[in-house]
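Cross-check.
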Amino acid sequence: MNFDIITYLSFFAFIYVYSRLAIHYLPVIYSHFLNENLSLVNSVEKPRLLFHFTGLSFMHLMSNFHHSNQTSNLAVQLIIVLVYLLGLYFCLTSWRENFKSSFLKKIISNSDKSPNNFNLSISDIHLTQLYNEMVRFDLIDQEATSLLDFKNVLLEDWGNKRSRIHLKMDGPSCREFYDHLIKTFPHNSITLKNLFVTSGLLIRPDGKKYNYNTLKNAPTRSPISKQHEALEAIFQKFK
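Predicted model, tokenized:
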């Protein structure tokens, strides 16, 4: 049996590309069947999928051409390899930070940003993943806060909905959550005071609003919060 290095390398490239897509999107599909409020269509990142569709089309086309036309012509083989690598590049580039900055920013409004909105720039799929992870680590009261409530609070104007986010975190944990949030999703104008105090939409476990001074001074009193490991694990998934 002849050893065809192009065939073997293309096989592993296909495995890598499809595996990464599956790891990223299967949790969303799973959530779709468990939560009727989740719109699967809105959860799909269209620019990323377009890049993958284009790249995989090139890869499959060149792979099929290579198998059906066994030629010793070096120029033809070089063209096949280059086009295949171009397709692979399309797939891989969609996971880079500059791609997310350019294509996956949440379009908040064509007009000026509302002063009564968090103006959070985050894709729908990441917002869904964030909610699911917070529920998994018991940082949010799932009985009092649905996924729809979570999205309404973070994306809509504060006065448009009666939704609230009922957290299960103390002050230092909330401050660490905020620090992770703005570092992971930097394309927004959200502030610590607006998020936890001014809006009045994020509620403490006892049902009261958070105290701004407590949140602001939390790093000096508690450099590592009670939920440090959970928050590290949650936001590590978005890197």
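The longest strand covers residues 165-166. The chain is about 60% helix and 0% strand. Passed to J.P. for a second look.
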